[in-house]
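User: Could you go from structure to sequence for me? I need the amino acid at each position, not a summary. Structure tokens:
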């Protein structure tokens, strides 16, 4: 059976729908940076997702090609994630999506080296006849965070965020969103197929001890 990060690391991907404190270890990601409204038809965000999955599946299916990645094991491609911010705003202003800056990411299995990643970029570009130059290798050490499962539309996330912030303060923590520690979302539902009120999204914010 293929290794599924969501099931093997439930503390990071399947939290309860009430806030909790978690320490997230360093991870490597396939990443594409951009800006603007993620809902824009034909926009940069939708293009970024296509690039991410192009590389993710090139790595996953490498077992059937000429490159045998050392340490490879069969796995389910991890869910799409995103780091979000807006200049001059602490957190996220959902009323001004056009001001979003974002890094869309998909987690890489630990066995993938930078050399394997570079090969996957070249291989995806060769097979799909597409420019993958915007795709980058991202190392991110998230550390101490408060997180919660949000169930519902993305525009309703502020209510969940408010619960998270109240909980962290009760536990003696302060919000620590900076230029390097960002609002983080993990998308467990496909918004094209799931009704807005049933969407499952992990929301995670960096914190520090008061």
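Assistant: Here is the amino acid at each position, in order:
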């Amino acid at each position: 059976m293929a290794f599924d990060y969501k099931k093997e690391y439930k503390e990071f991907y399947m939290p309860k729908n009430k806030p909790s404190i978690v320490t997230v270890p360093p991870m490597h990601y396939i990443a594409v940076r951009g800006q603007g409204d993620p809902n824009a038809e034909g926009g940069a965000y939708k293009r970024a997702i296509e690039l991410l999955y192009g590389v993710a599946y090139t790595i996953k299916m490498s077992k059937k090609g000429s490159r045998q990645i050392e340490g490879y094991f069969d796995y389910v491609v991890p869910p799409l994630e995103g780091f979000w911010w807006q200049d001059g705003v602490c957190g996220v202003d959902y009323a001004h999506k056009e001001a979003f800056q974002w890094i869309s990411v998909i987690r890489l299995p630990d066995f993938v080296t930078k050399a394997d990643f570079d090969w996957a970029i070249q291989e995806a570009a060769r097979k799909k006849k597409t420019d993958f130059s915007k795709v980058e290798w991202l190392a991110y050490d998230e550390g101490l965070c408060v997180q919660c499962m949000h169930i519902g539309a993305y525009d309703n996330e502020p209510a969940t965020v408010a619960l998270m912030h109240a909980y962290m303060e009760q536990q003696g923590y302060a919000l620590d969103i900076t230029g390097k520690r960002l609002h983080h979302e993990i998308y467990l539902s496909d918004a094209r197929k799931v009704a807005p009120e049933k969407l499952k999204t992990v929301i995670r914010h960096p914190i520090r001890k008061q």
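One structural detail worth keeping in mind: The chain has five helices and nine strands.
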